[in-house]
Amino acid sequence: MVIAVYAAISGELRLPLGFSGPLKAYRAHSQVTSADLRPEASVWASVTLAARDDIFNITNGDQFRWQHRWPRIARMFDMETADPVLMPLSSLMTERAELWSGIVAKHGLLNTPYERVVSWNFADFSFNSGYDNVSSTIKARKAGLAECVETEEMFRTFFASLRAGKIIS
Asked: What's the CA gap between 101 and 113, in Å, rounded?
């Protein structure tokens, strides 16, 4: 949601989609976990004998660097990118509620209150990790969890579902 709303606001302001964290975070290895994969993994862990009383790292299964992923995400919104600039979205974007309301009205989007549509503090946390953030999922794989998600396809599918649900245009 953070990326989608940030892209919508940047697009409305006719700005390129700039990564809002430090260069170290832009270049570090990262992983994410699909919201669809989490419940699948929870069900697997609850019914699989090999998972009983154990703890597992669950991620999509791939790694990426924002420096490679960010331009692809920008293209999903038909936007150009800008060089990374350390700018806390939690302070910059909280002032954009009125602009968001205008975007919602202009495109006939679902009228979701701005403060409920996205957590800018989460954005700041996510885009400011200046170190490799990689967790091994080998233990879960060895115990039998086969599900994985290709991260770029996850973003593409998620953004398409937000458009179909009239959350973003």
From this structure: 8
